[in-house]
Amino acid sequence: MHPLAALFPSGTGYLAACTGGLPARPTLDALRADLDAWESGVVSPAEYGRVADDCRAAFARIVGVPVDDIAIGSQVSAQVSVIAAAAPDGAEILCAEGEFSSVVAPFAAYGLRVRAVPLAALADSLTDQTWLVAYSLVQSATGEVASPRIAPVARAAGVRTLVDLTQAAGVLPVDASLYDATVTHAYKWLCCPRGVSFLTLSPAFAAALVPIQAGWYAGQDVWASCYGSRFELASSARRFDVSPAWQAVVGAAPALELFASTSAQASWEHATALGDALCDGLGIGRQGQAIVTWPDQSGDDLVRLTEAGLTVSGRAGRVRVAFHVWNDGADVEAVLRAVGR
Fold it and tell me: What dihedral angle (degrees, nearest 10) is formed by the CA atoms of 62, 68, 70, 73?
């Protein structure tokens, strides 16, 4: 059993962290207390700001970068748009085939040339026209983990890197300092309420970007930036902040602290051990992943699993089963029973 398991609901048959995480008890307690405070009229925007900074600090520990290199947002696609806006005219954006839309759609919307290749071929597909390579560290549809070769090869070629950590942070050890930029929505493996996302930027890359979404929260002094035409942007990556969703950060802060205080390596070993046990039971090759998928074009296995009371998902003609800290061997057995193995 994972050390965090006792803080999450058990016996739910929930095998869908790749779709959305479950709330830990500290998150539920924080949200309920905030609702009571809101009802009583005693909430404080300044206090919400301090909670948002707690989220930023905990996330910095999770991904291994300084707090000053992190911007807070609400949606990954909006944060990717900041990078897309800075791309030179005619630049090529290299991405993985089947990549999640939020990682690539902003570049396409700006009229940039988006070229897709198999994930395994990314490191060997850079050209002198490639400005940036954008990919998810863990692929949403398949759970496949990207090669660690990509970032150093891109750096040597002078190509920028943008990596989506949404399907990785919280279960897989990650180091955001290896990339020019990362984006993460925290509602999946980090088990936060939806509406809390993070953008990390190396200082050199941040200097080349314009905070196109700047508002009062991007000011050097947030509370002195609410009015007027004289505006001083924050000197850190906070200049790329948008004002946080207050209730969401209240629930996110304890969740992020839990994962910042827990070994990601232990979480990965726990999840992949369950994944490999499922593969063994299904008679398919071990995938070494927290997300296990297998072909299900007819959707029959997805129906069987759902009718058995299990929460899983289907993507791209495959069943998708995810294992996280609350799952255990009983979940593996339940999946195998449901599909008749």
Answer: 130
